Amino acid sequence: MSQMHRLYETIRGDILSLTLSPGHAFSERQFEALYGGSRTPIRAALSRLEVDGLVQRDDRGWSVTPLSFQEIEAASEFRAAVEREAVTLACQRARPEEIDGIAEMVVSVTMDMSLDEWHRAGRDFHVELARLSGNLFFVRAVEDVMTRLARARWLEIRSLEGRQRTVTEHMNILDIVRRRDVATAVAAVTEHAQSTQSRHVEALMGNARGAAGLVVVGARK
């Protein structure tokens, strides 16, 4: 793995896990010291993170992109639209063994797993559900939108209740796909996307009020 790729993955992980808070300002020199990289690979990693929408340039250097209620809502709407189409095709095209494979992945998660493992498992479920459609464009779209929602998802899965609810809803969607019930599957992924959006916003509002240094654009009263 190249130094640039290692730095990109490490910094990205710290942003998505909120180790680096939204709005955190920094310079390339500070990140050189923090992450042990030289100027050129640090700059290349930051440029890639800028494309991902996770960092942004300002007059004095760089900052972690603030969380945005508007972006979360827009991303959630896009996710719901993509997943409705993807699950329609999944009901028509998915092989039983493929559905079983995702179900095994869901039930393999345990409540004592690390938040990082939970976060990754939740993302993987949605990516693999899209893959059942047989259309890689849906897969790529879901990968991108789940990255956009990643920081809000971290806030939600911190609670045991949130993790338990996630497993239940994921298994329900798979059971419906297994029955090839398109209308119910579309309704289920829509409800799941809408309910998780509401929980993301609720978690974000709570953290915006209580966490020092957490910058949220368009934060509600």
From TrEMBL:
<protein>
    <submittedName>
        <fullName>GntR family transcriptional regulator</fullName>
    </submittedName>
</protein>
<dbReference type="InterPro" id="IPR000524">
    <property type="entry name" value="Tscrpt_reg_HTH_GntR"/>
</dbReference>
<dbReference type="InterPro" id="IPR036390">
    <property type="entry name" value="WH_DNA-bd_sf"/>
</dbReference>
<keyword id="KW-0805">Transcription regulation</keyword>
<dbReference type="InterPro" id="IPR011711">
    <property type="entry name" value="GntR_C"/>
</dbReference>
<dbReference type="InterPro" id="IPR036388">
    <property type="entry name" value="WH-like_DNA-bd_sf"/>
</dbReference>
<keyword id="KW-0238">DNA-binding</keyword>
<keyword id="KW-0804">Transcription</keyword>
<dbReference type="Pfam" id="PF00392">
    <property type="entry name" value="GntR"/>
</dbReference>
<dbReference type="InterPro" id="IPR008920">
    <property type="entry name" value="TF_FadR/GntR_C"/>
</dbReference>
<dbReference type="Pfam" id="PF07729">
    <property type="entry name" value="FCD"/>
</dbReference>
<dbReference type="GO" id="GO:0003677">
    <property type="term" value="F:DNA binding"/>
</dbReference>
<feature type="domain" description="HTH gntR-type">
    <location>
        <begin position="1"/>
        <end position="67"/>
    </location>
</feature>
<dbReference type="GO" id="GO:0003700">
    <property type="term" value="F:DNA-binding transcription factor activity"/>
</dbReference>
